[in-house]
Amino acid sequence: MVIKDKIIPIIDSSIKKEESMIVLNSIIDLIDLSFTEFESTSIIIRGCVIRNLSLHTSWFKQGFLLEDNIILNKVIFEMGGHNDEPICIKSNVFRDFFSFFDCQFKELLIVENNIFKQGTNLFCNMHTEGDSFGIKMRVNNNIGILDSERID
């Protein structure tokens, strides 16, 4: 399914019925993918303005691309990952904090060219019990604090 150039009130876990979900150049009030295992759905969100992005306990088995977006809220991606394909977070502006607490990534995690205005705990949680980032991680050219100890 492809959605392009729309104003969208909500995208939720019902998209897991799709083989792929591509959202381009849209304004989205809420993306709530929390507490969902996307076993066979690949997800691409590119060029959007997102008021609320909720990823708590989202497992992206077939990968996830978040690119060229502006995200306005605090993003909680705690207990997430569990990916069999790459998760790419590239060229976004995060106006609030982004939490990777207790994430486990089985395959490549790419975090590049983002602006984390209020920071992230990406590096702070890399070596704590429960977090598993492994050696399959590529982090380059990000702006903002990447090792914040903030846990809210």
What features would you describe in this structure?
The chain has strands at 2-4, 7-12, 20-24, 27-32, 36-38, 42-46, 49-54, 58-60, 64-67, 70-71, 75-76, 87-90, 93-94, 98-99, 109-112, 115-116, 137-140. The chain has 152 residues and is mostly beta strands. It has one domain (2-12, 19-140). It is globular and about 35 Å long.
Number of helices: 0
Spatial separation of the terminal alpha carbons: 34 Å
Low-confidence stretches: none
Note the run of SSEs as H and E: EEEEEEEEEEEEEEEEE
Beta strand count: 17
Going across the major beta sheet, what is the strand order? 1-3-6-9-12-15-17
Give the helix/strand class: mainly beta
Judging from the principal axes of the Cα atoms, what is the shape? Answer: globular
Biggest sheet features: 7 strands, parallel
Integer average pLDDT: 88
Supply Rg. 14 Å
Tally of discrete structural domains: 1
Share of residues in strands = 35-45%
The share of residues in helices is under 10%
